[in-house]
Amino acid sequence: MPAKIISGEEIGAEIRAELKPEIDRLKEKQGVTPGLAVVLVGEDPASQVYVRMKGRACEDMGMHGESIVLPESTSEHELLATVDRLNEDPAIHGMIVQLPVPDHIDANKVLRRIDPQKDVDGFHPENVGKVAIGDDSGFPPATPFGVQQMLMRSGIEISGAHAVIVGRSNIVGRPVASLLLQKGPGGNATVTVCHSRTKNIGEVTRSADILIVAIGRPEFVKADMVRPGAVVIDVGTNRVDDATRERGYRLVGDVDFDAVKEVASAISPVPGGVGPMTVTMLIYNTVRAAQRWAAI
Ligand code: NAP
After folding, report:
1. Which residue from 46, 85, 155, 279 puts its CA 20 to 30 A from 14's CA?
2. Minimal CA–CA distance to 140: which of 293, 290, 39, 278?
């Protein structure tokens, strides 16, 4: 039987519908409109799409959204000055600097400059550390947080499951591991993390009850790498040439969807899977930041 489809569109819409009354309450009862600033340096086309999506999501939710687009030639000093200004801006409760930044800018320096209370992307070491030790005052990064929500809201039993994560980036793989390992709801998994040096990777992925793939390799995971009945979450977002499409490419994940859906019990598609969850969880974190700000 083909796998159940885990739709990030649907789960994301469900979470946004839950957030809307809280946004209205913050605005009406506390006079606080949650505000998210997205800073983009340069003209990377994929980043431009992401920034537009985040702006549109803020608008749809009745939040204050600010997109700050700086030229490629922006110096590190100028970008840091922009971050400083947003750190001080009372209308902004969450801020993200869209990655990647141009090579002449040290991304780590910029991420560390963001006030951890406004770091809704969860990349500041203070938030990374809090998530790693299970301190729920930290902001989990949006994509891993979205992956965890997809599993929880699809009724997948995480506790006691063997979760295999392929990819160990700071943005996806490692924080997914932290979240699923935590004690408590959405956690308690037995976690294995694979990377480019993992030996016999197919053997490891076949031992997964829950397989999460984030490597950036189109359709890398084939059906024979998946245990029948496993749950598969595909974080990968890859453009592959496709002359039949008007834009000349299509998006595929890191999992061979058509083959793996015949083996897995549940699977997230690309597009329509993790992508929409990322924007939603960014909104979620921004609302939390605004709640805290309102409580001060
Ligand atoms: P990344 O920083 O490039 O990290 C890739 C990871 O995959 C590394 O840990 C690397 O191992 C590992 N890897 C690469 N090739 C491998 C192989 N053949 N076998 C096993 N492991 C391998 O990538 P990322 O930022 O985590 O992103 C991963 C994918 O997720 C990309 O397609 C990206 O576009 C997508 N993504 C999607 C969203 C979303 O919202 N949907 C958000 C973020 C990322 P080493 O550490 O050993 O090099």
Report:
1. 46
2. 278
Q: Which residues of the chain have pLDDT under 70?
A: none
- Calculate how far, in angstroms, residue 214's C-alpha sits from the geometric centre of ligand 1: 4
CATH number of 31-116: 3.40.50.10860
Q: What is the pLDDT of residue 164?
A: 99
**Domain-by-domain residue ranges, the chain?**
31-116, 142-275
What's the gap between Cα 94 and its chain centre? 15
Using CA positions, which residue lies closest to atom 41 of ligand 1?
A: 275
3-state secondary structure at position 170: coil
Instruction: Give the mutation target among 54, 148, 150, 215 for probing the ligand 1 site: most ligand atoms within 8 A of CB.
Output: 215
The average confidence (pLDDT) of the chain is 97
CB-ligand 1 contact for 98 (6 Å cutoff): no
**What pLDDT, in 10s, does the model give residues 102-123?**
999 999 999 999 999 999 999 9
Intrachain domains 31-116 and 142-275 with the same fold:
yes
Angstrom distance (rounded) from CA 4 to CA 150: 13
CATH architecture of 142-275: 3-Layer(aba) Sandwich (3.40)
Evaluate: CB of 168 within 6 angstroms of ligand 1: yes
Residue 109 identity: K
